[in-house]
């Protein structure tokens, strides 16, 4: 377990017994399509299934003069980051949001180009949290699609570092509000839940920490409080995107899941009053020795929730992926950049 000198659970925002005091009326949609633009893995040999479309082997033609035709197939870029395109449809009206932007300045845009995705269709940006591997692609996005509204938690601007014992501390890149606004983004800060797209998309805001095992980041993850560096276990800016697909239940998309994947799913269900989890996609942050001890209770919780689709990507780790695949073989789908997931109303 990842714990410091203090009982991390005592610093959680608040307990959440019973139904939500301030429930969210999340409007159901007829369809949601989630396309992974950036992930840690790209595998052109993966096969799809109903509702899961993989990228063709021929995707990503790039210049390469050593070949007879002067080009080769490059596929998509895989990098330690996450970004997804989310399109929700109600009737004949569709709206597209960008959830996170990957780690490199040009990786997300490059993959979008190789996929034939028109970023001009994007109508807003949602940031899951402030870590650089989810915000790095904002640089190239600004050159393609200026003036977009951007929903985020006010703590995304927090200075953070990794101070591993025996090594020099490494300060992480810190997002700049001044720079984003100078590039034309309309920043909307929210600690509370936000409803977007005429009430069809929920951004969770701060997530209630209610499990006894999801204790957050280990002591080397630190934040600057204005005077000194302090252990930052909770990453309070962590939030998820939620859609209610009519007749199927909630679709939950996470960036890293720093709030805890089980906490996030339960929080979404409690906020909306929807008692069915249809799908969980994104980073679950279960990789490495600090988090592997909580794989078993996490898998047990999701086995009980029994979603139709589970796609652990980015920072989930191979051990967690194998455990989820074994426990939920019909729901598990391996993540890969470029994959399109379609969930339609029942």
Automatic annotation (TrEMBL):
It is an enzyme of class 2 (transferase). Residues 7-21 have a biased composition (Low complexity). The keyword Transferase applies. Its EC number is 2.5.1.105. Keywords: Transferase. GO terms for molecular function: 7,8-dihydropterin-6-yl-methyl-4-(beta-D-ribofuranosyl)aminobenzene 5'-phosphate synthase. Residues 1-21 are annotated as: Disordered. It comes from the Bacteria. Residues 89-145 form the Metallo-beta-lactamase domain. This is 7, 8-dihydropterin-6-yl-methyl-4-(Beta-D-ribofuranosyl)aminobenzene 5'-phosphate synthase. The lineage of its organism: Bacteria, Bacillati, Actinomycetota, Actinomycetes, Geodermatophilales.
